[in-house]
């Protein structure tokens, strides 16, 4: 098992000339005038494009947010790294000429994809907020001498990043990092830290996975932690800068995700081939854009993955008051003088209803008038933070909650 990642990388390297060749052949075919290219040629071009796209990428895609509407003005947006560690950057979406707005740290999950998965979330937040994001680096590109990165390190990064934002910023955590976001908030509140968040918003996060367990939760509890270490942890291939670092490979995570909805993904690629063959460019681009992001994967540090499975999904330490951070208990009763908002999706099959809401139960010293819970009807996991209902129904509630508590 330790050689699986190396074998996979060798295979990708050996087949890379085929993908390059297919891409080159496709470019030549596209030079043929449209009036001369028949149905067979279009189908050949479609097949070549599918071959050229038959690989994962380990490079972060661009956010591609060049401007945003603030009120009735279009404001240019530039990306600025304001703080950096070997494992992540604090990325600021700077808006020159925008009015002063609440500073928000958007906490992206470290779950096999890059933070760019939250591109739509960022663009929506930018309308009314000064947005920063946790832009995690791919462990396969981080040399081993930089050391380990576990669950406590993730929480430390949030505390450090919040400190860079100045007094009383706001924090919005999406999915998996909700546990670390709440832990960081508790530690900072207990220490009376000047940069403790003014509001904490947890969206579709696994605070207590004992509540209505999903298939993901059940799988995490179906095996002893040794099984995960022995079967899912691999060494980064020698071709990479992070050679021999232990990771949970992104391609393994993606394989698990794809297998959960295999028929849908097969159908999407058949539809893509048909759209390309028929010259339906706009429909094809919609599918390609989705899979460009979906097939951009990042590995997870082995320590972070194993500790998350054990502490969050198997032992449920946070809701039981047993989670430790740097030798001290994480006391959720210390969370006070902040606003707490929780958001869940009715059809979420990754983090079911009640799991995020439990944060309201364990943060007993947050005043009732500073609590908000919203269950969004008709959305699954990703619909909580992307898409029409996020933009039109969830975001207005979050925006008003942040502004009232600023």
From TrEMBL:
Q: Which InterPro entries match?
A: AB_hydrolase_fold, PHA/PHB_synthase, PHB_depo_C, PHB_depoly_PhaZ
Using the record's annotation, list all stretches that form the PHB de-polymerase C-terminal domain.
Answer: 204-405
List residues traversing the bilayer. Answer: none
Which NCBIfam families does UniProt cross-reference here? PHB_depoly_PhaZ
Protein name stated in the entry: PHB de-polymerase C-terminal domain-containing protein
